[in-house]
Design goal:
The protein is mainly alpha-helical. It has 19 helices and 2 strands. It is found in: Cell membrane.
Length: 500
Amino acid sequence: MSTTLEENKRPPYGIIAILLAGAFISILNETLLNVALPSIMRDFEISASTVQWLATGYMLVNGVLIPVTAFLIQKFSVRSLFLTAISLFTIGTILAVISWNFPVLLSARVIQASGSAIMMPLLMNVLLTGFPIEKRGAAMGVFGLVMIFAPAIGPTLSGFLIEHYSWKMLFYVTLPVAAVILLTAIFLLHDKKESVAIKLDGFSVILSSIGFGGLLHGFGSAGDKGWSAPEVYLTLIVGAIALVVFILRQLKLEVPMLEFRIYRYPMFALSSMISVTLMMAMFGAMLLLPMYVQTIRGISPLDSGLLMLPGALLMGVMSPVTGKLFDKYGARILAITGLSITILTSFMFSRLTMETAYTTLMLLYTARMFGMSMVMMPVMTNGLNQLPARYNPHGTAMNNTLQQVSGAIGSALLITIMSTRTTTHIEELAGSGLAGQDLINQATVEGINDAFLITVFVALIALVLSFFMKRSKPGEDFRDQPVKAKEQKEEPLAEPATQV
Protein backbone atom coordinates (compact mmCIF):
# COMPACT_ATOMS: atom_id res chain seq x y z
CA MET A 1 0.00 0.00 0.00
CA SER A 2 1.54 3.33 -0.99
CA THR A 3 2.06 6.21 1.40
CA THR A 4 0.86 9.61 0.24
CA LEU A 5 1.70 13.04 1.64
CA GLU A 6 -1.41 15.18 1.69
CA GLU A 7 -1.97 18.46 3.44
CA ASN A 8 -4.58 18.96 6.18
CA LYS A 9 -4.98 15.22 6.76
CA ARG A 10 -3.45 12.77 9.20
CA PRO A 11 0.36 13.04 9.51
CA PRO A 12 2.22 11.00 6.88
CA TYR A 13 3.52 8.33 9.26
CA GLY A 14 4.59 6.01 6.46
CA ILE A 15 6.73 8.64 4.77
CA ILE A 16 8.20 9.71 8.12
CA ALA A 17 9.12 6.10 9.02
CA ILE A 18 10.99 5.62 5.74
CA LEU A 19 12.73 8.99 6.05
CA LEU A 20 13.68 8.29 9.68
CA ALA A 21 15.31 5.00 8.66
CA GLY A 22 17.30 6.73 5.92
CA ALA A 23 18.37 9.57 8.20
CA PHE A 24 19.39 7.12 10.94
CA ILE A 25 21.68 5.06 8.71
CA SER A 26 23.24 8.15 7.13
CA ILE A 27 24.01 9.84 10.47
CA LEU A 28 25.25 6.59 11.98
CA ASN A 29 27.62 6.26 9.03
CA GLU A 30 29.02 9.74 9.74
CA THR A 31 30.60 8.69 13.07
CA LEU A 32 31.03 4.97 12.34
CA LEU A 33 34.36 5.38 10.57
CA ASN A 34 36.13 7.54 13.19
CA VAL A 35 37.32 4.59 15.31
CA ALA A 36 38.48 2.78 12.15
CA LEU A 37 40.86 5.52 10.96
CA PRO A 38 44.01 3.95 12.54
CA SER A 39 43.24 0.59 10.85
CA ILE A 40 42.72 2.29 7.48
CA MET A 41 46.04 4.13 7.94
CA ARG A 42 47.84 0.81 8.38
CA ASP A 43 46.09 -0.96 5.49
CA PHE A 44 46.68 1.80 2.93
CA GLU A 45 50.00 2.97 4.46
CA ILE A 46 48.96 6.62 4.66
CA SER A 47 49.52 9.40 7.23
CA ALA A 48 47.11 10.63 9.89
CA SER A 49 46.60 13.94 8.07
CA THR A 50 45.66 12.04 4.90
CA VAL A 51 43.24 9.57 6.51
CA GLN A 52 41.54 12.47 8.32
CA TRP A 53 40.08 13.51 4.97
CA LEU A 54 37.58 10.65 5.30
CA ALA A 55 35.98 12.63 8.14
CA THR A 56 36.80 16.12 6.85
CA GLY A 57 35.59 15.37 3.32
CA TYR A 58 32.29 14.01 4.64
CA MET A 59 31.80 17.14 6.74
CA LEU A 60 32.71 19.47 3.86
CA VAL A 61 30.27 17.88 1.42
CA ASN A 62 27.50 18.17 4.02
CA GLY A 63 28.37 21.81 4.64
CA VAL A 64 28.37 22.62 0.94
CA LEU A 65 25.16 20.75 -0.01
CA ILE A 66 22.90 21.40 2.99
CA PRO A 67 22.32 25.11 2.10
CA VAL A 68 21.12 23.99 -1.36
CA THR A 69 18.48 21.70 0.19
CA ALA A 70 16.12 24.64 0.82
CA PHE A 71 15.87 25.08 -2.96
CA LEU A 72 15.65 21.32 -3.63
CA ILE A 73 12.82 20.80 -1.11
CA GLN A 74 10.78 23.59 -2.71
CA LYS A 75 11.37 22.36 -6.27
CA PHE A 76 11.10 18.56 -6.07
CA SER A 77 8.83 16.00 -4.43
CA VAL A 78 9.73 14.10 -1.27
CA ARG A 79 9.83 10.86 -3.27
CA SER A 80 12.27 12.07 -5.92
CA LEU A 81 14.56 13.75 -3.40
CA PHE A 82 14.68 10.82 -0.99
CA LEU A 83 15.21 8.24 -3.74
CA THR A 84 18.08 10.34 -5.08
CA ALA A 85 19.59 10.70 -1.61
CA ILE A 86 19.35 7.04 -0.56
CA SER A 87 20.55 5.90 -4.01
CA LEU A 88 23.66 8.07 -3.73
CA PHE A 89 24.26 6.78 -0.21
CA THR A 90 23.90 3.15 -1.34
CA ILE A 91 26.20 3.63 -4.35
CA GLY A 92 28.81 5.20 -2.07
CA THR A 93 28.54 2.28 0.36
CA ILE A 94 29.01 -0.27 -2.46
CA LEU A 95 32.08 1.62 -3.65
CA ALA A 96 33.48 1.63 -0.10
CA VAL A 97 33.00 -2.15 0.17
CA ILE A 98 35.04 -2.78 -2.98
CA SER A 99 37.56 0.06 -2.44
CA TRP A 100 41.09 -1.08 -3.29
CA ASN A 101 42.95 2.13 -2.43
CA PHE A 102 42.48 5.32 -0.45
CA PRO A 103 41.29 7.61 -3.31
CA VAL A 104 38.46 5.15 -4.08
CA LEU A 105 37.46 5.01 -0.41
CA LEU A 106 37.52 8.82 -0.17
CA SER A 107 35.35 9.06 -3.31
CA ALA A 108 32.93 6.59 -1.73
CA ARG A 109 32.64 8.76 1.39
CA VAL A 110 32.00 11.88 -0.71
CA ILE A 111 29.19 10.11 -2.61
CA GLN A 112 27.71 8.89 0.69
CA ALA A 113 27.84 12.43 2.10
CA SER A 114 26.09 13.89 -0.95
CA GLY A 115 23.12 11.65 -0.21
CA SER A 116 23.26 12.14 3.54
CA ALA A 117 23.18 15.95 3.23
CA ILE A 118 19.71 15.83 1.67
CA MET A 119 18.08 13.44 4.15
CA MET A 120 18.11 15.44 7.39
CA PRO A 121 16.62 18.73 6.11
CA LEU A 122 14.08 16.74 4.06
CA LEU A 123 12.94 14.78 7.13
CA MET A 124 12.68 17.93 9.27
CA ASN A 125 10.58 19.67 6.63
CA VAL A 126 8.17 16.72 6.35
CA LEU A 127 7.77 16.72 10.15
CA LEU A 128 7.05 20.47 10.20
CA THR A 129 4.50 20.32 7.38
CA GLY A 130 2.92 17.02 8.47
CA PHE A 131 2.08 17.91 12.08
CA PRO A 132 0.09 20.82 13.57
CA ILE A 133 2.12 23.18 15.75
CA GLU A 134 0.71 21.80 19.02
CA LYS A 135 2.01 18.28 18.17
CA ARG A 136 5.35 19.18 16.61
CA GLY A 137 7.26 18.70 19.86
CA ALA A 138 6.52 14.97 19.99
CA ALA A 139 7.30 14.61 16.27
CA MET A 140 10.57 16.50 16.54
CA GLY A 141 11.40 14.46 19.64
CA VAL A 142 11.45 11.34 17.47
CA PHE A 143 13.64 13.24 15.02
CA GLY A 144 15.95 14.14 17.92
CA LEU A 145 16.26 10.44 18.73
CA VAL A 146 17.72 9.90 15.25
CA MET A 147 19.89 13.02 15.23
CA ILE A 148 21.55 12.34 18.59
CA PHE A 149 21.21 8.60 19.17
CA ALA A 150 22.70 7.48 15.84
CA PRO A 151 26.06 9.30 16.16
CA ALA A 152 26.25 8.40 19.84
CA ILE A 153 26.12 4.62 19.29
CA GLY A 154 28.46 4.88 16.28
CA PRO A 155 31.72 4.66 18.28
CA THR A 156 30.46 1.68 20.32
CA LEU A 157 29.33 -0.30 17.29
CA SER A 158 32.45 0.66 15.38
CA GLY A 159 34.73 -0.29 18.27
CA PHE A 160 33.16 -3.75 18.51
CA LEU A 161 33.39 -4.42 14.75
CA ILE A 162 36.96 -3.12 14.45
CA GLU A 163 38.08 -5.23 17.40
CA HIS A 164 36.76 -8.43 15.78
CA TYR A 165 36.74 -7.77 12.03
CA SER A 166 38.25 -5.62 9.26
CA TRP A 167 37.19 -1.96 8.91
CA LYS A 168 35.31 -2.95 5.74
CA MET A 169 32.81 -4.74 7.97
CA LEU A 170 31.44 -1.28 8.82
CA PHE A 171 30.27 -0.93 5.22
CA TYR A 172 29.18 -4.59 4.94
CA VAL A 173 26.81 -3.95 7.86
CA THR A 174 25.52 -0.65 6.41
CA LEU A 175 24.96 -1.85 2.83
CA PRO A 176 22.02 -4.29 3.30
CA VAL A 177 20.23 -1.80 5.54
CA ALA A 178 20.61 0.98 2.94
CA ALA A 179 19.46 -1.41 0.18
CA VAL A 180 16.31 -2.39 2.12
CA ILE A 181 15.46 1.28 2.76
CA LEU A 182 15.95 2.04 -0.96
CA LEU A 183 13.67 -0.81 -2.08
CA THR A 184 11.04 0.12 0.52
CA ALA A 185 11.06 3.74 -0.67
CA ILE A 186 10.71 2.71 -4.34
CA PHE A 187 7.55 0.71 -3.68
CA LEU A 188 5.93 2.55 -0.76
CA LEU A 189 7.01 6.20 -0.81
CA HIS A 190 4.70 8.43 -2.88
CA ASP A 191 3.51 12.03 -2.65
CA LYS A 192 1.50 14.24 -4.96
CA LYS A 193 3.80 17.25 -5.22
CA GLU A 194 4.79 18.19 -8.77
CA SER A 195 8.10 19.80 -9.72
CA VAL A 196 7.97 23.59 -9.20
CA ALA A 197 9.36 25.90 -11.88
CA ILE A 198 11.97 27.80 -9.88
CA LYS A 199 15.58 28.24 -10.92
CA LEU A 200 18.72 27.81 -8.85
CA ASP A 201 21.11 30.76 -8.89
CA GLY A 202 24.44 29.23 -9.92
CA PHE A 203 26.54 32.06 -8.49
CA SER A 204 24.86 31.57 -5.09
CA VAL A 205 25.81 27.89 -5.14
CA ILE A 206 29.45 28.80 -5.85
CA LEU A 207 29.53 31.45 -3.09
CA SER A 208 27.82 29.11 -0.62
CA SER A 209 30.25 26.29 -1.39
CA ILE A 210 33.30 28.52 -0.97
CA GLY A 211 31.86 30.27 2.09
CA PHE A 212 30.62 27.36 4.19
CA GLY A 213 33.25 24.98 2.79
CA GLY A 214 36.06 27.42 3.62
CA LEU A 215 34.85 27.94 7.19
CA LEU A 216 34.38 24.22 7.80
CA HIS A 217 37.77 23.32 6.36
CA GLY A 218 39.53 26.14 8.18
CA PHE A 219 38.09 25.40 11.59
CA GLY A 220 38.32 21.64 10.99
CA SER A 221 42.06 21.93 10.24
CA ALA A 222 42.90 24.41 13.02
CA GLY A 223 43.04 21.80 15.79
CA ASP A 224 45.54 19.68 13.85
CA LYS A 225 47.64 22.22 11.94
CA GLY A 226 47.40 25.26 14.24
CA TRP A 227 45.94 28.70 13.58
CA SER A 228 49.16 30.04 12.05
CA ALA A 229 49.10 27.54 9.16
CA PRO A 230 48.31 29.26 5.80
CA GLU A 231 45.87 26.44 4.97
CA VAL A 232 43.86 27.43 8.05
CA TYR A 233 43.79 31.24 8.04
CA LEU A 234 43.60 31.62 4.26
CA THR A 235 40.62 29.29 3.94
CA LEU A 236 38.92 31.06 6.87
CA ILE A 237 39.46 34.49 5.29
CA VAL A 238 38.30 33.38 1.83
CA GLY A 239 35.35 31.52 3.36
CA ALA A 240 34.28 34.53 5.45
CA ILE A 241 34.45 36.90 2.46
CA ALA A 242 32.51 34.51 0.23
CA LEU A 243 29.89 34.03 2.95
CA VAL A 244 29.37 37.79 3.35
CA VAL A 245 28.95 38.19 -0.43
CA PHE A 246 26.60 35.16 -0.44
CA ILE A 247 24.38 36.69 2.26
CA LEU A 248 24.25 40.08 0.52
CA ARG A 249 23.31 38.37 -2.74
CA GLN A 250 20.50 36.37 -1.06
CA LEU A 251 19.04 39.60 0.35
CA LYS A 252 18.83 41.06 -3.16
CA LEU A 253 17.44 38.03 -5.00
CA GLU A 254 13.66 37.82 -5.45
CA VAL A 255 13.82 34.03 -4.94
CA PRO A 256 16.94 33.41 -2.81
CA MET A 257 18.62 30.04 -2.56
CA LEU A 258 18.72 30.42 1.24
CA GLU A 259 16.46 33.03 2.86
CA PHE A 260 18.42 34.91 5.54
CA ARG A 261 15.52 37.25 6.30
CA ILE A 262 14.01 34.49 8.45
CA TYR A 263 16.18 35.99 11.19
CA ARG A 264 13.58 38.75 11.39
CA TYR A 265 11.61 36.27 13.48
CA PRO A 266 13.01 36.74 17.02
CA MET A 267 12.38 33.24 18.40
CA PHE A 268 14.06 31.64 15.38
CA ALA A 269 17.07 33.97 15.77
CA LEU A 270 17.23 33.21 19.51
CA SER A 271 16.98 29.44 18.95
CA SER A 272 19.83 29.65 16.43
CA MET A 273 22.08 31.43 18.94
CA ILE A 274 21.33 28.89 21.69
CA SER A 275 21.81 25.95 19.31
CA VAL A 276 25.16 27.28 18.07
CA THR A 277 26.58 27.67 21.59
CA LEU A 278 25.27 24.27 22.67
CA MET A 279 26.64 22.48 19.59
CA MET A 280 30.04 24.09 20.16
CA ALA A 281 30.08 22.73 23.70
CA MET A 282 28.76 19.28 22.75
CA PHE A 283 30.91 18.52 19.69
CA GLY A 284 34.08 19.75 21.39
CA ALA A 285 33.43 17.60 24.44
CA MET A 286 32.76 14.57 22.23
CA LEU A 287 36.38 14.94 21.07
CA LEU A 288 37.92 15.70 24.45
CA LEU A 289 36.50 12.76 26.39
CA PRO A 290 37.67 9.98 24.01
CA MET A 291 41.08 11.69 23.91
CA TYR A 292 41.30 11.55 27.71
CA VAL A 293 39.92 8.00 27.97
CA GLN A 294 41.93 6.39 25.16
CA THR A 295 45.14 8.43 24.86
CA ILE A 296 45.75 9.28 28.52
CA ARG A 297 44.08 6.44 30.40
CA GLY A 298 44.78 3.70 27.81
CA ILE A 299 41.19 2.42 27.71
CA SER A 300 40.34 0.42 24.55
CA PRO A 301 38.16 1.94 21.79
CA LEU A 302 35.42 -0.60 22.59
CA ASP A 303 35.38 0.27 26.30
CA SER A 304 35.53 3.95 25.37
CA GLY A 305 32.44 3.48 23.22
CA LEU A 306 30.69 1.51 25.96
CA LEU A 307 31.37 4.36 28.37
CA MET A 308 29.29 6.65 26.15
CA LEU A 309 26.56 4.10 25.40
CA PRO A 310 24.33 4.68 28.50
CA GLY A 311 24.27 8.40 27.71
CA ALA A 312 23.31 7.66 24.12
CA LEU A 313 20.56 5.24 25.20
CA LEU A 314 19.17 7.70 27.76
CA MET A 315 19.20 10.47 25.17
CA GLY A 316 17.35 8.23 22.76
CA VAL A 317 14.71 7.41 25.38
CA MET A 318 14.39 11.05 26.47
CA SER A 319 13.97 12.63 23.03
CA PRO A 320 10.32 11.59 22.50
CA VAL A 321 9.56 12.30 26.19
CA THR A 322 11.12 15.75 25.92
CA GLY A 323 9.08 16.37 22.77
CA LYS A 324 5.82 15.70 24.62
CA LEU A 325 6.94 17.90 27.54
CA PHE A 326 7.69 20.65 25.02
CA ASP A 327 4.14 20.44 23.62
CA LYS A 328 2.78 20.80 27.16
CA TYR A 329 5.13 23.29 28.85
CA GLY A 330 7.10 24.99 26.06
CA ALA A 331 10.85 25.20 25.50
CA ARG A 332 11.91 27.72 28.15
CA ILE A 333 11.62 25.58 31.31
CA LEU A 334 13.16 22.57 29.53
CA ALA A 335 16.08 24.63 28.21
CA ILE A 336 16.81 26.23 31.59
CA THR A 337 16.69 22.84 33.38
CA GLY A 338 18.74 21.04 30.74
CA LEU A 339 21.38 23.74 30.46
CA SER A 340 21.78 23.87 34.26
CA ILE A 341 22.51 20.12 34.25
CA THR A 342 24.89 20.56 31.29
CA ILE A 343 26.78 23.35 33.08
CA LEU A 344 27.12 21.34 36.31
CA THR A 345 28.36 18.18 34.58
CA SER A 346 30.73 20.17 32.35
CA PHE A 347 32.24 21.70 35.47
CA MET A 348 32.68 18.22 36.97
CA PHE A 349 34.49 17.17 33.76
CA SER A 350 36.88 20.08 34.26
CA ARG A 351 38.20 18.34 37.41
CA LEU A 352 39.48 15.11 35.84
CA THR A 353 42.53 13.36 37.26
CA MET A 354 44.66 10.37 36.31
CA GLU A 355 42.62 8.31 38.81
CA THR A 356 39.05 9.33 37.93
CA ALA A 357 36.99 6.12 38.03
CA TYR A 358 35.49 4.63 34.85
CA THR A 359 32.03 4.50 36.46
CA THR A 360 32.32 8.19 37.46
CA LEU A 361 33.09 9.13 33.86
CA MET A 362 30.14 7.06 32.63
CA LEU A 363 27.72 8.63 35.14
CA LEU A 364 28.89 12.17 34.37
CA TYR A 365 28.64 11.65 30.62
CA THR A 366 25.19 10.10 30.97
CA ALA A 367 23.98 13.03 33.10
CA ARG A 368 25.45 15.50 30.59
CA MET A 369 23.62 13.82 27.72
CA PHE A 370 20.42 13.84 29.79
CA GLY A 371 20.74 17.60 30.21
CA MET A 372 21.41 18.18 26.52
CA SER A 373 18.44 16.02 25.50
CA MET A 374 16.19 18.56 27.23
CA VAL A 375 17.57 21.46 25.22
CA MET A 376 18.41 20.69 21.61
CA MET A 377 15.13 19.67 19.97
CA PRO A 378 12.79 21.87 22.09
CA VAL A 379 14.86 24.98 21.34
CA MET A 380 15.13 24.17 17.63
CA THR A 381 11.42 23.33 17.32
CA ASN A 382 10.36 26.51 19.15
CA GLY A 383 12.36 28.58 16.68
CA LEU A 384 11.01 26.76 13.61
CA ASN A 385 7.44 27.10 14.92
CA GLN A 386 7.59 30.89 14.46
CA LEU A 387 8.35 30.62 10.75
CA PRO A 388 5.48 30.76 8.23
CA ALA A 389 5.12 27.42 6.42
CA ARG A 390 6.75 28.68 3.20
CA TYR A 391 10.03 29.27 5.07
CA ASN A 392 10.28 25.81 6.69
CA PRO A 393 12.77 24.54 4.05
CA HIS A 394 14.98 27.59 4.67
CA GLY A 395 14.74 27.19 8.45
CA THR A 396 15.68 23.50 8.40
CA ALA A 397 18.55 24.11 5.96
CA MET A 398 19.83 27.00 8.08
CA ASN A 399 19.71 24.95 11.30
CA ASN A 400 21.53 21.98 9.77
CA THR A 401 24.20 24.23 8.25
CA LEU A 402 24.76 26.03 11.56
CA GLN A 403 25.13 22.67 13.32
CA GLN A 404 27.94 21.70 10.96
CA VAL A 405 29.73 25.04 11.27
CA SER A 406 29.31 25.45 15.04
CA GLY A 407 30.45 21.86 15.62
CA ALA A 408 33.62 22.55 13.61
CA ILE A 409 34.21 25.84 15.45
CA GLY A 410 33.67 24.24 18.86
CA SER A 411 35.99 21.34 18.09
CA ALA A 412 38.75 23.65 16.77
CA LEU A 413 38.40 26.07 19.69
CA LEU A 414 38.54 23.42 22.42
CA ILE A 415 41.35 21.41 20.81
CA THR A 416 43.38 24.63 20.45
CA ILE A 417 42.76 25.57 24.10
CA MET A 418 43.72 22.05 25.19
CA SER A 419 46.94 22.14 23.15
CA THR A 420 48.10 25.59 24.27
CA ARG A 421 47.23 24.98 27.92
CA THR A 422 48.99 21.57 27.82
CA THR A 423 52.19 23.34 26.74
CA THR A 424 51.78 25.84 29.59
CA HIS A 425 51.17 23.07 32.14
CA ILE A 426 54.27 21.16 30.97
CA GLU A 427 56.34 24.23 31.90
CA GLU A 428 54.52 24.63 35.23
CA LEU A 429 54.92 20.94 36.19
CA ALA A 430 58.56 20.71 35.13
CA GLY A 431 59.79 21.06 38.72
CA SER A 432 57.14 18.85 40.31
CA GLY A 433 59.12 15.62 40.08
CA LEU A 434 57.19 14.28 37.08
CA ALA A 435 59.16 13.45 33.94
CA GLY A 436 58.79 11.88 30.51
CA GLN A 437 55.41 10.48 29.56
CA ASP A 438 54.02 10.96 33.08
CA LEU A 439 54.68 14.69 32.79
CA ILE A 440 53.06 14.88 29.34
CA ASN A 441 50.02 12.87 30.46
CA GLN A 442 49.44 15.00 33.56
CA ALA A 443 49.83 18.22 31.59
CA THR A 444 47.42 16.94 28.92
CA VAL A 445 44.82 16.11 31.58
CA GLU A 446 45.14 19.67 32.92
CA GLY A 447 44.78 21.00 29.36
CA ILE A 448 41.62 18.91 28.84
CA ASN A 449 40.26 20.26 32.14
CA ASP A 450 40.83 23.83 30.98
CA ALA A 451 39.03 23.11 27.70
CA PHE A 452 36.07 21.59 29.57
CA LEU A 453 35.96 24.69 31.76
CA ILE A 454 35.48 26.78 28.61
CA THR A 455 32.43 24.65 27.74
CA VAL A 456 30.97 25.73 31.10
CA PHE A 457 31.12 29.39 30.03
CA VAL A 458 29.81 28.59 26.54
CA ALA A 459 26.83 26.75 28.07
CA LEU A 460 26.31 29.69 30.48
CA ILE A 461 25.78 31.95 27.46
CA ALA A 462 23.10 29.57 26.20
CA LEU A 463 21.48 29.51 29.67
CA VAL A 464 21.25 33.31 29.81
CA LEU A 465 19.72 33.40 26.31
CA SER A 466 17.16 30.72 27.23
CA PHE A 467 15.53 33.06 29.79
CA PHE A 468 14.32 35.20 26.86
CA MET A 469 12.48 32.34 25.14
CA LYS A 470 8.71 32.48 24.62
CA ARG A 471 6.32 29.90 23.20
CA SER A 472 6.18 30.45 19.44
CA LYS A 473 3.31 30.58 17.00
CA PRO A 474 3.59 31.13 13.24
CA GLY A 475 4.52 34.73 12.50
CA GLU A 476 3.30 36.99 9.72
CA ASP A 477 5.09 36.56 6.39
CA PHE A 478 7.49 39.48 6.10
CA ARG A 479 6.86 39.59 2.33
CA ASP A 480 3.25 40.57 3.03
CA GLN A 481 4.14 43.46 5.34
CA PRO A 482 5.13 46.05 2.69
CA VAL A 483 1.90 45.32 0.79
CA LYS A 484 -0.22 45.93 3.87
CA ALA A 485 1.67 49.11 4.71
CA LYS A 486 1.01 50.41 1.20
CA GLU A 487 -2.70 49.60 1.49
CA GLN A 488 -2.91 51.47 4.80
CA LYS A 489 -1.38 54.56 3.23
CA GLU A 490 -3.78 54.47 0.28
CA GLU A 491 -7.01 54.01 2.28
CA PRO A 492 -7.17 57.54 3.84
CA LEU A 493 -6.72 59.04 0.36
CA ALA A 494 -9.74 57.12 -0.93
CA GLU A 495 -12.17 58.47 1.70
CA PRO A 496 -12.35 62.13 0.53
CA ALA A 497 -12.91 60.96 -3.06
CA THR A 498 -15.87 58.89 -1.91
CA GLN A 499 -17.39 61.87 -0.05
CA VAL A 500 -17.12 64.12 -3.09
